[in-house]
Write a structure and sequence with these properties.
The structure is a single chain. Helix 2 runs antiparallel to helix 4. This protein has one domain: Spore Coat Polysaccharide Biosynthesis Protein SpsA, Chain A. The radius of gyration is 16 Å and the shape is globular. By secondary structure, it is of the alpha/beta class.
């Protein structure tokens, strides 16, 4: 199994954010700073490098000082395209890296020991892991062997877009994470901000924790 310092973090920000009215929801403020900044702060101690997967003009992420990689196929084809682009980038630019960990950019409360838990999990020998909680599996939050790039490319070329089915078919081992407490409330560790009301809830969680 890879060591923590040989894991690259990939922030998946390639979606349309239609339920938030479009634009980059990860750039919306949460507790006085962009959601993306909170996610970077949480992931940075867990990985060797971080890159952002996003489409469109990468300049809008310039303030974060991180590499920005666009989807490997055009037209917002979903997280599998973003994961594949990240795996190819890591293979070309970080040849000693064996795994990437992917995190959705709308999950500001994901565990601070996410990568360690993935690395320590038993199960399949490939090191392919996905997060699971009481509400189900979260396949966009996972530990991906870089060696999956070729298989993923072939699947995308066949039109595969279903990340849940793909991870299951290729032997990803679910790793269970319990609820976390934020602001005195027990919430799913992968609580995601899909709509304005979710952002409002996240603000309440943070304000209660601060008080």
């Amino acid at each position: 199994m890879a060591l923590p310092e040989s894991v690259v973090g990939v922030l998946l920000a390639g979606g349309k954010s239609s339920r938030m009215g479009g634009g980059d929801k990860c750039l919306r403020p949460l507790g006085g700073k962009p959601i993306l900044a909170r996610i970077i702060d949480r992931l940075s101690p867990q990985v060797s490098d971080i890159l952002i997967n996003a489409n469109g003009d990468p300049a809008r992420f310039a303030a974060f000082g991180l590499p920005v990689v666009s989807d490997s196929v055009a037209g917002y084809q979903g997280p599998l395209a973003g994961v594949h682009a990240a795996l190819e980038w890591v293979s070309a630019n970080r040849p000693g890296i064996d795994h990437v960990v992917t995190v959705a950019t709308d999950t500001p409360f994901f565990p601070s020991d996410l990568v360690d838990r993935f690395l320590d999990a038993g199960g399949g020998t490939s090191g392919f892991r996905v997060a699971q909680s009481e509400v189900g599996t979260h396949p966009v939050i996972g530990l991906w062997p870089v060696g999956l790039a070729a298989a993923l490319k072939a699947s995308l070329e066949r039109g595969e877009r279903k990340v849940t089915a793909w991870t299951k078919d290729h032997g990803a081992v679910p790793v269970f994470f319990s609820p976390v407490e934020v602001g005195g409330k027990s919430i799913d560790p992968f609580f995601n901000i899909n709509a304005p009301e979710d952002l409002a809830s996240a603000e309440v969680f943070l304000s209660q924790r601060a008080s």
